[in-house]
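Standup notes, structure subgroup. Blocker cleared on the zinc ion input:
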Amino acid sequence: MNNNITDFHTHAFADRIFERAMNSLKAGSGIEPFHDGSLSGLTASMDQAGIWRSVVLSIATKPEQVDVIIDWSSSIASERIVPFASVMPTDANAARDVRRIAAAGIRGLKIHPYYQKFVIDDPVLDPFYRAVAESGLILVSHTGYDVAYPDREGLASPERTARMISRHPDLCFVAAHFGGWEDWDAVERHLIGKPVWLETSFLAEMCEREQARRMFLSHDPARLVFGSDSPWVGQAEELARLRALDLPAELLDAVLEKNASALLDGAGPEA
Ligand SMILES: [Zn+2]
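Run returned:
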């Protein structure tokens, strides 16, 4: 049994804004959330699912939100809540903002190509990626398609993601949704076996079982981390789906506990 499970992909909002934020996200995705989007909603979900710690990801959609997110992230950090901040990667001050996140003692940041309107391997973003690598921060990005954007522009396709990470070998990059939401064949072609951390949310639910198992078993076992995308997915439900894949016990242990702890507690493999 795993007692120190880390969920590397959750969302929660400040008490003052969670109702408004959740309503607008619900309208965009058409998904009914599993809790109300507050920090206490998340904590109750963690207790119910047997999850020790959650990485709480924020996404800035305007440069002026960066400060608010840094302040809020600093205020909620605890043993069980690991907040990641956010910057607009296309903003002229992105590299400076990255350094401010590191100076605030925050462990990482999240970016989202669809909500923030960028293409993941655009060379314009290279100074931003270099700043993240130099600051020693963990970078999480949404990868693959997005349920709220049916046009499927491929802004963070597995092929583009692979191109970006090959240009930034020092970057500690965690690709959400196993490297490519609903683009699993391309993940298998371009990302499996590459030096990239893959976060598991949606894979077990949306990918065919044999392919999901094959990808788990073919990637570097030290570069896989469990994530749920709570509250859009239930933490207990996602955990049950992952366990139902019948992965070897040692690998499951690495995915649920060891690899996240290596990343967050600093004892991990080099990027
Ligand atoms: Zn998410």
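Discussed briefly. Residues 267-271 have pLDDT under 50 and may be disordered.
Next: hand off to the docking folks.
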